[in-house]
UniProtKB/TrEMBL annotation:
Protein name: beta-galactosidase
A UniProt-annotated Pfam family: Glyco_hydro_2_N
Family: Belongs to the glycosyl hydrolase 2 family.
Taxonomic placement: Bacteria, Pseudomonadati, Bacteroidota, Bacteroidia, Marinilabiliales
GO CC terms in record: beta-galactosidase complex
Reaction catalyzed: Hydrolysis of terminal non-reducing beta-D-galactose residues in beta-D-galactosides
Residues covered by the Glycosyl hydrolases family 2 sugar binding domain: 99-218
MF terms in GO: beta-galactosidase activity
PROSITE patterns according to UniProt: PROKAR_LIPOPROTEIN
Signal peptide region: 1-19
One of the GO BP terms on file: lactose catabolic process
EC number of the protein: 3.2.1.23
Glycoside hydrolase family 2 immunoglobulin-like beta-sandwich domain segment(s): 224-328
Source organism of this protein record: Draconibacterium aestuarii
Length: 942
């Protein structure tokens, strides 16, 4: 037994020694000593020589470790705040106190810290690391780091998008050493812009810490310091650029061996290795490596990857490195993109560093695969990283799944910063771009690149022209634009422009969706100008939805939705807490309708390059921008599924150009049918099928269009649908088109060309005149339909109503109209029996919303239950009605803030709604319960 124990001990010692001899990394995750440097005295007082008094766990942030200061009115936030008069708003005052800090502009961390903090760890260097190169690798730091080893200053790094890597070779020998890292998250001389999503509290939070891999890496004396692979699909080869460190100090001949092998789940393909002797001692080596005849290309449909291994040996010095890459080429082909020669339309969303549970982006591949899978389920193929650069794991996930990225250099140089004026940010942006290309340039998913977002500066154009020209010359693996949003400089490979969308910033009620009757026969050809390169529309959508107040329970990480608590209390104070879920679902249906209109307009535009949504999921900052059909956790809200969304957003989308959506029964329903097709291949012999069905699913009309070949492109014309649907009762129908298994649909309404005669005549007035008062006093019936602008401020007249949802939010846009989120009603209410509707806004309500005043029913002495409610901004939560009824004196009064009199002959929806209300008023069901006085009604109006 003793002999066996001795053998086991010897074996364990041997295995331990073998492990030590082969160890390449020392994992530094775990417990670190820690100290906050709130007075910024750590360097002056040589804290790197001290033993720090506290501890934290890394990887992690200060707030994850419970470190920092309580959040309150004096917190030093990073991020601009607008429209700050909310502090004085009577709607908020009851909920603001010293005991509890509620803040509506972004999510709030449990604790917050702005400044320097120190992290310290003792490491034990193995004996076999003697005379080896040693690197400290800190995958993602926020933000600036400075490093000391045993009291000796190593250096300073400030990358926001790549790992901080320090050469510790001359500082570390076998044995124990103290590594001290000072992390500083302040914006100092280097100002990338406080709203940049790389640093801002608006989204990921301005955290302090180190996340991802934290390790010491042993490298050979002769080592590969940079390895870049440049695919050449036309010639079936790659150019391999290798930079060697310390090659000049080696002796003997240098041999390099290069070999590629396919890296997916498919049958492995090995490419013949190349081995050669290198005479060049400069440290930079370029090798043309043939990939063979059976090259597998990478794109969104076939994300084939290769692993390239490079071995270098000079005498006894040896190093090996491997990198994954894809045989992919992206270029501007006229006004469209082409990937490997096939036209591509970018269907993208933004990712703005929104990760509420941690306050920083994940560094594991599975988290990013989840996000990409969700995006793909909604028909997308592209993500733009707005003013930040994601970690390595994000690229790896996109490589494996086949997804296109636009990546930016972590800057939004606009409010407090600018480009081209010689500020430190100019030099930093160049250096950061170099770091990003070195770290992530081999990833085939890294397809597009910009400096960052919406720049400022009188010399910005020249700075960005030089920036784009530099990278177009240095690296052809992707396409480049100067800035997202602007400027459209000549040097750009493509432009990000804000013009091609249905609602512009500051456009208010003048936009297509709010100023023009319902139609979807327009596109953006007239908004693209004479561009001879691809245009990707900048931040389309921005359509809001009412907060999902139940979502607050999900915030179980470091960021809390205190803004939602503020909105909840406001809603309850206005006696509408029970309507929260209904407001969410109704406004969500309108939001989805607005996104469908935005996306289809882009798909109808011939030669268009693509769009970038703002956003598929909510943006929690800038005053709370609830613009997503998904919440910040990438989860559904309950009013549209990925399957429904991908009907109008996909690789192939049937389209219908309808010059209007409302028809009389004696009119011809006409629609030009098109398709946008960017699938993996062109299709031959496709027969489009169309049908029109009522709300019960009964098909009333159907047919086929001519069989055709489906080529790649936008707005491909397939034929016309022309038909009539005679009806004696108002009905809602759905036009559905199916092409090659892809289905899309559009609601239309058909109203009778002539209405049946009413049982009695209803007095219709536009003000409470003498005749109306007399009628009410005598027990009669009156329909009061208000002129636009006739409702007093404070009674609802201050509310800006339009058809669309709120754009971005009212807090950040200075109260841009519309201020509302659509309608909420009971579709089975008898007053709407002749005006077919769902519980939410649809296109038949455009006319009403465009000719209306909101009426604040909270001003009345008795509770009023609206027949048609308009959903107010969650910031104000007023009880707003468009239609309500009341008893006045002995009579019965129907009040509508919708003008149902002016220009009635040209407004079929108004005609039909008026008929529905009057028909209801003639029957026994018109029996208002709420008693109001004549003066109360008068006081509403100017």
């Amino acid at each position: 037994m003793k002999l066996i124990n001795c053998v086991v001990i010897v074996l364990l010692v041997f295995l331990s020694a073998c492990n030590q001899n082969t160890q390449q990394n020392i994992d530094l995750s775990g417990e670190w000593k820690f100290q906050i440097d709130s007075l910024d005295v750590g360097i002056a007082e040589h804290w790197y020589n001290l033993d720090l008094s506290e501890t934290v766990q890394l990887p992690g942030s200060m707030v994850e470790n419970g470190k920092g200061n309580p959040v309150g009115p004096n917190t030093h936030w990073v991020g601009n705040q607008r429209n700050m008069e909310w502090f004085e708003d009577e709607n908020y005052k009851p909920f603001l106190s010293d005991e509890e800090y509620l803040f509506p502009y972004w999510l709030i961390p449990d604790k917050h810290y702005y400044g320097a903090a120190w992290y310290q760890k003792t490491v034990d260097i193995p004996s076999d690391w003697k005379e080896q190169n040693i690197e400290l690798y800190l995958e993602r730091c926020h933000w600036e780091t400075q490093v000391w080893v045993d009291g000796q200053k190593v250096g300073l790094q400030n990358s926001l998008g790549t790992a901080h890597q320090y050469d510790l070779t001359k500082y570390l020998s076998p044995g124990k050493h103290k590594i001290s890292v000072c992390v500083d998250n302040r914006i100092k001389d280097l100002d990338v812009g406080p709203d940049s999503h790389s640093v801002s509290d608006h989204t990921q939070s301005n955290w302090n810490g180190i996340v991802g891999e934290i390790k010491l890496v042993k490298r050979a004396k002769l080592s590969i310091s940079n390895l870049q692979v440049f695919p050449d699909i036309a010639n079936k080869k790659v150019r391999v650029e290798i930079e060697l460190k310390d090659i000049a100090e080696t002796k003997g001949e240098t041999i390099i061996r290069v070999e590629a092998v396919s890296a997916g789940n498919e049958e492995e393909v090995r490419v013949n290795p190349v081995e050669m002797k290198i005479e060049n001692r400069s440290g930079k080596i370029v090798i043309d490596y043939p990939m063979g005849d059976a090259v597998r290309l990478w794109d969104e449909f076939d994300p084939n990857l290769y692993k390239l291994t490079v071995e270098v040996q000079s005498g006894s010095a040896k190093d090996e490195q491997e990198v994954h890459f894809g045989m992919r080429e992206i270029k501007a082909d006229g006004t469209r993109f082409a990937v490997n020669g096939r036209p591509v339309f970018l269907r993208g969303t933004l990712e703005c560093a929104i990760f509420p549970r941690t306050g920083y982006p994940p560094t594991d591949v599975e988290s990013w695969k989840r996000i990409i899978t969700i995006c793909r389920a909604h028909g997308l193929n592209h993500i733009r990283f707005h003013s930040w650069c994601p970690p390595e794991a994000a690229f790896t996930a996109a490589d494996e799944l086949g997804f296109y990225y636009q990546v930016e250099c972590s800057s939004w140089a606009n409010s407090t910063s600018r480009l081209g004026d010689g500020l430190p940010v100019d030099k930093w942006l160049y250096e950061e771009s170099v770091r990003m290309i070195k770290a992530y340039g081999n990833h085939p998913s890294f397809c597009l690149m910009a400096y960052g977002n919406e720049p400022a500066g009188k010399n910005q154009k020249q700075f960005l022209a030089d920036f784009v020209t530099l990278w177009k010359t240095k690296d052809s693996r992707r396409v480049y634009t100067g800035g997202a949003g602007w400027p459209a400089i000549e040097q750009n490979d493509y432009h990000n422009l804000p013009q091609p969308r249905i609602q512009a910033w500051g456009e208010g009620l003048r936009s297509i969706i709010n100023a023009q009757p319902p139609r979807n026969d327009y596109d953006w050809q007239n908004r693209l100008g004479k561009n001879d390169r691809p245009v990707v529309s900048h931040e389309i959508g921005q359509w809001c939805v009412y907060p999902n107040l139940k979502e607050s329970e999900k915030y179980d990480g470091v960021l809390k939705a205190k803004n939602f608590e503020l909105f909840r209390r406001s809603l309850n104070a206005h006696q509408m807490g029970h309507l929260a879920d209904s407001f969410l679902l109704a406004s969500g249906k309108l939001q989805a309708l607005c996104y469908k209109a935005d996306i289809e307009a882009a798909l109808r535009t011939p030669g268009f390059g693509g769009f970038q949504l703002l956003d598929l999921h909510d943006f929690p900052g800038q005053g709370t921008a609830l613009v997503g059909v998904l919440d910040p956790f990438w989860e559904e809200k309950g009013y549209i599924t990925p399957e429904e969304y991908s009907r109008f957003c996909n690789e192939t989308v049937p389209l219908a150009r309808l010059p209007k959506r409302i028809f009389k029964s004696n009119e011809t329903i006409s629609a030009e049918i098109e398709v946008a097709h960017f699938g993996p291949k062109e299709l031959a012999g496709v027969t489009p099928h169309w049908k029109i069905a009522d709300q019960l699913g009964t098909v009333v009309r159907e047919g086929n269009l001519a069989t055709t070949n489906l080529n790649w492109g936008n707005g491909i014309k397939l034929g016309f649908v022309e038909t009539t649907i005679p009806t004696e009762k108002a009905k809602q129908f759905t036009l559905e088109v199916e092409i090659a298994g892809f289905i899309n649909s559009w609601d239309i309404w058909v109203y009778p060309s002539e209405q049946p005669k009413l049982q009695e005549e209803i007095l219709v007035v536009q003000e409470l005149n003498k005749k109306a008062i007399t009628t009410l006093k005598n027990g009669g019936k009156v329909l009061l339909t208000a002129r636009i602008g006739s409702v007093k401020n404070g009674k609802g007249g201050e509310v800006g109503i339009g058809f669309s949802s709120i754009f971005w939010n009212t807090a950040w846009t200075g109260g841009q109209k519309p201020h509302t989120l659509g309608i909420l009603c009971d579709p089975n209410h008898p007053a709407l029996a002749d005006f077919p509707t769902e519980f939410h806004s649809n296109w038949q309500w455009w006319d009403a919303m465009s000719h209306s005043n909101a009426i604040n029913v909270e001003v009345f002495s008795n509770p009023v239950q609206p027949i048609l409610r308009v959903i107010d901004d969650w910031v104000t939560n007023r009880q707003l009605a468009l239609i309500f009824e009341a008893k006045v004196g002995k009579g019965k009064l129907m009040v509508t803030g919708i003008d149902l009199v002016d220009n009635l002959k040209n407004r079929p929806e108004a005609q039909q709604l008026l008929y529905s209300l009057e028909n209801y008023m003639t029957g026994e069901k018109f029996n208002p319960l709420t008693q109001l006085s004549e003066n109360e009604i008068r006081e509403i109006f100017e």
